[in-house]
Amino acid sequence: MKQVIINNSIFFDQVAILQDGRLQDYMNEEKDYKSVVGNIYKGKVMNILPGMEAAFVDIGLDKNAYLFLEDLLSDKFLKEKNIKKKDVTGISTVLKKGEEIIVQITREPIGEKNVAVTTDISISGKYIAFIPNSIEVNISKKIKHVEERNRLMEIGKSIMKNGNGMIIRTFSKNCSKESIEKEYSMLSSVFAQIEKEYKYSYAPKLLYKNNSFIERLFLDCIDSTVDEIYVKDKKTKETFEGLIKGYNTDEMKSIAIIESNCAFENFNVEKQISMLLKRKVELENGGSIFIDVTEAMTVIDVNSGKFIGSKSMEETALQLNLSALDEIARQIKLRNLSGIIIIDFIDVKIKDNKNLIINKAKDAFKDDKAKINIIGMTKLNLMEITRKKDKENFFNLMTKECEHCGGSGRTGSKIFIFLKIESIISNIKKNTSSEAVILNTGFLLYNKILNNYMDIVIKIEQKYNIKIFFFPDKNIITDDIVVGRMGKADYINTFLNK
Predict the structure, then answer these.
(1) Which of 27, 36, 191, 378 suits a disulfide with 382, CB 3.0-4.6 Å?
(2) Biggest alpha carbon distance in the chain?
(3) Among 298, 371, 377, 383, which Cα is nearest to 337's?
(4) What is the pTM of this model?
């Protein structure tokens, strides 16, 4: 059974996708920061950097966006510029300072890096991605059946108009021409409005805002394979019901949408998410993998642990490496690890066995929505992988550099701390009649909360109608938060006034 569980908190929105109770995908978004990936802008080129083959584009955000030469060299952009690709000797050939262009954000700001943009505009629906100024119809590689691919190609070519192409997404499999054509027309109208605003506005200007968190979840993840969707409130339930009704397909009508305040707890989601912060991941066969995230790359080490295997060392190593790949693919997806990823496998000597590992990796990563390139294996049994980076990884999101060890370790971030506090208070509210609670913390976390985070604590108090007090405990030296006392307000006040 497949469940999608949405958990809305004061500070954070989270989505967990479970298959038979096991976490398969995890997404999140801060309440105060909406994703800008997919937003379309009229921008102004502020500076050309020939040495980096890049440009800075003002799109109205706090910092200018990066636009790299490779994101300018699409056939449609060069055609609009009346430039042949062979004549492009550098970024200055195709772009000038002060020029106004239409761009779309492809990467969130990460650390010190600004947002990245492209001139390859696309607008995603559920069945297709609308590609303006293109005469091509491309079909998702995940649709394998030749006859179905041919059918969809014919549909795409027959409905395409005004020189605007499309990418036919996986959800279009077995979909009717009428449904695909309806969405194509809708997205075509959206782009027509974007063009109109571009023509009659001054840069910088937001031309198109990407879908909300819930809408993106529906477009990218909800299909006939989903059995249940758990939501916390009636409003979110009605949103999903409206989205499903809008697509009017029999396949999604059987999805049960259930209101529940404790689905995360009932399905043990919080514990599964907390495991994503651990360096060591145990495998079912007794082996393990170790995941180390660095600034330059992520290194994953396969360890035999308690795995005995067969009599041959070569066969034992092969079995463990192949079985580890499924969990490695799952962890990379859940933790949103990206950039350069190196997997250190247990040594195998035979070339055919190395090829088996490479082929297994390609199969394990085939359902990942992020663009992945499996480069191959080195002589030292190191597999090199690159994965497209569009936002911060889970580890950096949920932790921050520890100011007391010069950055060699990590401690809980603001997001992690308040997810923890709200989870404790939510459980107390559901299971007791307490009016107040004392939470014990270490001295460092105690000072951090009182000096910097009380605004969020007040919001939690107001939401659950429980007064929260913090008490420094010399025996706690980590980011642990422990319930000291809870009960009626008079009882807690009496204890505090002793």
Answers:
(1) 378
(2) 82
(3) 298
(4) 0.77
